[in-house]
UniProtKB/TrEMBL annotation:
<dbReference type="InterPro" id="IPR050352">
    <property type="entry name" value="ABCG_transporters"/>
</dbReference>
<feature type="region of interest" description="Disordered">
    <location>
        <begin position="1"/>
        <end position="22"/>
    </location>
</feature>
<feature type="transmembrane region" description="Helical">
    <location>
        <begin position="419"/>
        <end position="442"/>
    </location>
</feature>
<dbReference type="InterPro" id="IPR017871">
    <property type="entry name" value="ABC_transporter-like_CS"/>
</dbReference>
<feature type="transmembrane region" description="Helical">
    <location>
        <begin position="532"/>
        <end position="553"/>
    </location>
</feature>
<keyword id="KW-0813">Transport</keyword>
<feature type="region of interest" description="Disordered">
    <location>
        <begin position="361"/>
        <end position="388"/>
    </location>
</feature>
<dbReference type="GO" id="GO:0140359">
    <property type="term" value="F:ABC-type transporter activity"/>
</dbReference>
<dbReference type="GO" id="GO:0016887">
    <property type="term" value="F:ATP hydrolysis activity"/>
</dbReference>
<keyword id="KW-0812">Transmembrane</keyword>
<keyword id="KW-0472">Membrane</keyword>
<feature type="transmembrane region" description="Helical">
    <location>
        <begin position="496"/>
        <end position="520"/>
    </location>
</feature>
<feature type="transmembrane region" description="Helical">
    <location>
        <begin position="642"/>
        <end position="666"/>
    </location>
</feature>
<dbReference type="Pfam" id="PF00005">
    <property type="entry name" value="ABC_tran"/>
</dbReference>
<dbReference type="GO" id="GO:0005524">
    <property type="term" value="F:ATP binding"/>
</dbReference>
<feature type="domain" description="ABC transporter">
    <location>
        <begin position="71"/>
        <end position="324"/>
    </location>
</feature>
<dbReference type="GO" id="GO:0016020">
    <property type="term" value="C:membrane"/>
</dbReference>
C-alpha cells in the first residue's frame, strides 16, 4: 500500500506484463574459463555490451528492458538490541531504527535517500542490500516481485561502500579488468569479452585519461579522489548488477567532482536501465536536480518519496514552502532535522510529515489498485526470472582460473610495491651485516660457546619477528578487499588464501635463504653440506610458521591495531619459553605447555643440535672448567630434550596446523553476511 510515490501518480513508467517470447537471449555455447584474453578465441563480445548489462549475461530487447521489474520494499522495520539500555527486568532493550518504511525504485531511476544525520539512511540502505548486523529485520523486499534470493541477490545487486578498498599498485584498467574476469561467468564469456566489457565500463565512467594510472595510497601518489570513487563504482558495475547501491558516494569530494560523479551515475542508470539507489548528505542544487526520486527520512520513517518538485509541492501543501533560490536539499534537511534545542517542536513537525506521507501513500495506493498491490505488478514481470537465471551460479570461474587470476593480481601488487621491496631487501642486508660482523668467524675457543648459542638463539627470534610483523599490517587491509569481493560472490576463500600465502611466503623464503646462507659462512658454523641443508630447512620451516601464525592472528582480529597489539605479545611469550631464557625444568607446569608451542624454541633447539652435536671446542680462553664438546653444551642448556628431527617434525606440524587454522578462521569470518 505505501509503495506509492508521486512518480507513480505521474505515471512516468507504466508497468506492463512482460512477454517472455520477446526476449532474445544470447548465450554463447562454447564453454571454457579463461583469463588470458589475447590467447583466446572471441566468443561473443557484443553480448556484454555496456548498454545491455541490466540482465547480466542475457540480451534483452529495449522494450523488454523498459518493462523490467522494480525493487520494492514494504513496511520495513529494523530493531537492534542495545546492550547498555535495560528494561525494568534488567534485560537489554531493543531500539527501533526504522519503522514502516515503504518505497520502490524503477529501472533506470537514480534514487537519493536523504535525511539528517541519524535519520536512518545507512540503515535503510543496509536493509535493502541485506548487509545487516545482528538486528531484526521485518517487512518485505522484492525484486521483480519476488523476495530476494540470498544466492542470486549477491550478484543481482552491487554495493559501493563509503570508503574505498582497492589494490594500490594496480592501474585503473587492471582493477576493472580483474573485477570483470573474476565476476563474470567464464561459462558464458571469453576472457576477451570480459575485458572488452571492463574497458567499456572504464570509458563510460570517463576514466580513459586515468586508465594507466596506479590507484595509489597514502605512500604512493595515484588517481584523484573522484577517479578513485569512480573506479570503486566501476568495479561493481563490471559485474553487471541490476541494482547499484551507493553509500554517500560524494562524501569527501568537492562540488564539481561530486557533480561529475552523479552525472555519470545518472547516465549509467539511464543507459543500462539499472536501478541506482544512493544515500547522500547535502547534495548541491545541480546534484539533487539530477535525481529522479528522493526518499526523505527522519527519525527512521519516511517523510516523503518521489521527484524533488513533487516533494516541494507536498511540503508546501503542508505549510512549509521552500524559499526562492534556496537549494531544495538544504530546505529538506532544515525541516526534517530534529534539533536538541527545539526537540518537542521538531518532533511534532516530523510526525506531521510521517502522517501526511502515510495518507498520501494510501490514497496513491487506492488509485493504483489493483495493479499496484505489492505483489501483483511484479508477478507479471517475474516470468522473466532473470535474476535466478543469470545470477545464481556459485562462482564465475573454476578453481584454477580463479587461483591464477588472484595470484597474478597479488604478484603484481607485491612486485610493484617498491617501498616495501626496498625496505625488505635493505632490512635483509642490514641484518646480514649486523649479525654477520657481530658474530663474525666465531672459532672453536671457549668464548665461542656462548657466542654460538647466542647466535643460534637470536637468528630464529629475528626471523620470526621480521617475517610475521608485515603480515600483521598488510593482511587485515587485504581482508577488507576480500570481504567486499566475496560479498559480490567473486571468488572462493581458498583461492584468495592460496594467492596470499604464496605471495607472502615466497619473498620471505628468498630473503631468509639468502641471509641464512651468507650468515652460515660469515659466522663460521660447521662447514658440512648436510648440516648446511638442515640449517636452511629449519629456517624455511620457521619462516612458514611465522607467516602462518601472522595469518592466524590477522584473520581472527578485525583491525591492524588489534593484530599489532596481540601479535608481538604472543611472540614475546614464544621467546620467553623458547628454552634459552629460562630452563624448561624451571618453568611451572601451568606454563610449561607454552614451551611446546614455541616455534622459536623448536628452531633454536634444531639449530643448536645441528651445530653443536659432535663439535669439539678448544680450551683457549677458558675461565674455570673447560667445556670440550658441543654435546656437553646441549646438555647444559637442555637443548637435546627433543631430538633435532622431532623439532623439525613439529615445525612441519605447526606450519600445517596454523595454515589450516588461518584458513578455517578466514572462511568463517569472511562468510558473506546477508540477511534477507
Ligand atoms: N547497531 C546499532 N545499534 C544501535 N544504534 C544504531 C545501530 N546502528 C545505527 N544505530 C543508530 O540508528 C540511527 C540511524 O543510523 P544510520 O547510520 O542509519 O543514520 P544515517 O542517517 O545514515 O546517519 P549519518 O548520515 O550520520 O551516517 C542512529 O541514531 C544510529 O546511532
Amino acid at each position: 500500500m505505501s509503495t506509492a510515490s508521486s512518480s507513480d501518480t505521474k505515471g512516468s513508467r507504466p508497468e506492463q506484463p512482460l512477454r517472455l517470447d520477446s526476449v532474445s537471449v544470447t548465450m554463447p555455447s562454447i564453454k571454457h574459463s579463461v583469463a588470458n584474453a589475447d590467447a583466446l578465441p572471441v566468443k561473443d563480445t557484443s553480448s556484454l555490451s555496456l548498454s545491455l548489462p541490466i540482465y547480466n549475461e542475457q540480451r534483452v530487447t529495449p522494450e523488454n528492458i523498459a518493462n523490467a521489474g522494480s525493487l520494492r520494499w514494504k513496511d520495513i522495520s529494523y530493531d537492534v538490541v542495545v546492550a547498555k539500555d535495560k528494561d525494568e527486568h534488567g534485560k537489554p532493550k531493543s531500539r527501533t531504527l526504522l519503522s514502516g518504511v515503504s518505497g520502490q525504485a524503477q529501472p533506470g531511476e537514480l534514487v537519493a535517500i536523504m535525511g539528517s544525520s541519524g535519520a536512518g539512511k545507512t540503515t535503510l540502505l543496509n536493509c535493502l542490500t541485506g548487509r545487516l548486523g545482528t538486528g531484526t529485520l521485518a517487512g518485505t523486499i522484492t525484486l521483480d516481485g519476488k523476495p530476494r534470493d540470498p544466492k542470486s541477490w549477491k550478484r543481482a545487486m552491487a554495493f559501493v561502500e563509503q570508503d574505498d578498498a582497492l589494490y594500490a599498485n594496480l592501474t585503473v584498467t587492471e582493477t576493472l579488468r580483474y573485477a570483470a574476469l573474476l565476476r563474470l561467468s567464464s561459462k558464458k564469456y571469453t576472457a576477451k569479452a570480459k575485458i572488452a566489457h571492463a574497458d567499456e565500463v572504464l570509458e563510460s565512467l570517463r576514466l580513459t585519461k586515468a586508465k594507466d594510472s596506479y590507484i595509489g595510497d597514502g605512500l604512493t601518489r595515484g588517481v584523484s579522489g573522484g577517479e578513485r570513487k569512480r573506479v570503486s563504482i566501476g568495479q561493481e558495475l563490471v559485474g553487471a548488477p541490476r541494482v547499484l547501491f551507493l553509500d554517500e558516494p560524494t562524501s569527501g569530494l568537492d562540488s564539481n567532482t561530486s557533480l561529475a560523479l552523479i552525472e555519470n551515475l545518472k547516465a549509467e542508470a539511464e543507459k543500462t536501465r539499472r536501478i541506482v539507489v544512493m544515500t547522500i548528505h547535502q547534495p548541491s542544487f545541480e546534484v539533487i536536480s539530477m535525481c529522479d526520486k528522493v526518499i526523505l527520512l527522519s527519525a527512521g520513517s519516511t517523510c516523503y518519496q518521489g521527484p524533488v518538485d513533487d516533494a516541494l509541492a507536498h511540503f508546501a501543501s503542508l505549510g512549509y514552502t521552500c524559499p526562492p533560490r534556496k537549494n531544495p536539499a538544504d530546505f529538506f534537511l532544515d525541516i526534517l532535522t530534529i534539533n536538541a534545542a527545539t526537540h518537542a517542536e521538531d518532533t511534532a513537525r516530523v510526525q506531521k510529515f510521517h502522517q501526511a506521507y502515510r495518507e498520501l501513500a494510501e490514497r496513491d495506493q487506492e488509485k493504483r489498485e489493483p495493479s499496484s498491490s505489492p505483489s501483483s505488478p511484479v508477478q507479471s514481470t517475474t516470468q522473466l526470472q532473470t535474476t535466478e537465471v543469470n545470477h545464481d551460479a556459485e562462482f564465475s570461474n573454476n578453481w584454477f582460473t580463479e587461483a591464477r587470476l588472484l595470484n597474478e593480481r597479488a604478484w603484481k601488487d607485491v612486485l610493484r610495491n617498491r617501498a616495501v621491496l626496498i625496505a625488505d631487501i635493505t632490512r635483509t642486508f642490514v641484518l646480514i651485516i649486523i649479525m654477520g660482523f657481530v658474530f663474525f668467524r666465531l672459532g672453536k675457543g671457549q668464548p665461542s660457546i656462548q657466542s654460538r648459542v647466542g647466535f643460534l638463539f637470536m637468528w630464529p627470534i629475528n626471523q620470526f619477528f621480521v617475517t610475521m610483523q608485515p603480515v600483521l599490517t598488510t593482511f587485515p587491509l587485504e581482508r577488507v578487499i576480500m570481504l567486499r569481493e566475496r560479498s559480490a560472490g567473486s571468488y572462493r576463500v581458498s583461492t584468495f588464501y592460496t594467492a596470499k600465502a604464496l605471495t607472502t611466503l615466497i619473498p620471505n623464503l628468498i630473503y631468509s635463504m639468502v641471509a641464512s646462507s651468507i650468515l652460515y659462512w660469515m659466522v663460521g658454523l660447521t662447514p658440512d653440506a648436510g648440516k648446511f641443508f638442515i640449517w636452511l630447512l629449519t629456517n624455511a620451516l620457521e619462516i612458514g610458521a611465522a607467516v602462518a601464525f601472522g595469518f592466524v592472528i590477522s584473520s581472527a582480529v578485525p583491525t591492524v591495531q588489534l593484530a599489532m597489539a596481540i601479535g608481538p605479545l604472543i611472540v614475546v611469550t614464544f621467546l620467553i619459553f623458547a628454552g634459552q631464557l629460562i630452563a624448561t625444568t624451571q618453568i611451572g607446569w601451568w606454563f610449561r605447555w607454552l614451551h611446546y608451542l614455541s616455534p622459536i624454541g623448536y628452531a633454536y633447539s634444531a639449530h643448536a643440535q645441528n651445530e653443536l652435536a659432535g663439535l669439539d671446542f678448544t680450551c683457549e680462553g677458558a675461565v674455570g672448567a673447560c667445556t670440550q664438546t658441543g654435546d656437553q653444551v646441549l646438555q647444559i642448556y637442555a637443548l637435546d630434550v627433543v631430538s633435532k628431527w622431532l623439532c623439525i617434525g613439529v615445525l612441519v606440524i605447526l606450519n600445517v596446523w596454523w595454515f589450516l587454522m588461518a584458513y578455517g578462521i578466514l572462511r568463517v569470518s569472511s562468510k558473506p553476511k546477508t540477511k534477507m
